[in-house]
Amino acid sequence: MAKAARVIVKAKDNREQSDKLIRRFTKKVKKEGLIEMARENRYYKKPSIKKREKRERAERMRRREERKRSKARERKSNRSR
Questions:
Q1: Angle (CA) 16 19 23, round 5°
Q2: Domain limits for position 76
Q3: Distance of CA 15 to the CA centre of its chain
Q4: Are 35 and 29 within 8 A, CB to CB?
Q5: pLDDT tens digits for 17-53?
Q6: Rounded Cα gap, residues 62 and 50, in angstroms
Q7: What span, in angstroms and rounded, lies between the C-alpha atoms of 34 and 42?
Q8: Do 6 and 37 lie in a common domain?
Q9: Are 38 and 5 in contact (CB under 8 A)?
Q10: Cα separation of 19 and 7, whole Å?
């Protein structure tokens, strides 16, 4: 079930320009992940495909974290020399 998103942007003062309001709204929407969620739910995906994508995403994250850890270890060993 998708989470309910309430993105509200109010003018800080009466003279705030509309383009600033739109920019703040866009930032909040991106931070909430609404656009990605809408794109994701645009078409039906079979549960098996969702599961496969989730597994692949997790594997990419694991590899990325491992690369970060190895780079950090490498930097740490270079500093101690």
A1: 105
A2: 45-81
A3: 32
A4: yes
A5: 888 889 999 999 999 888 888 898 999 999 999 999 9
A6: 18
A7: 12
A8: yes
A9: no
A10: 17
9/37 same-domain check: yes
Out of 1-5, 16-20, 41-45, 62-66, least confident range: 1-5
Cβ atoms of residues 7 and 25 within 8 Å: yes
Q: What is the CA 41 to chain-centroid distance, rounded?
A: 16
Measure Cα distances from 11 to 5, 15, 22, 24 in Å. Answer: 20, 8, 10, 10
Q: Do 34 and 5 touch, CB atoms closer than 8 A?
A: yes
30 lies in the same domain as 50: no
Number of structural domains (the chain) is 2
Helix (H), strand (E) counts: the chain: 3, 0
Q: How far apart are CA 39 and CA 34, in angstroms?
A: 9
On average, the pLDDT of the chain sits at 88
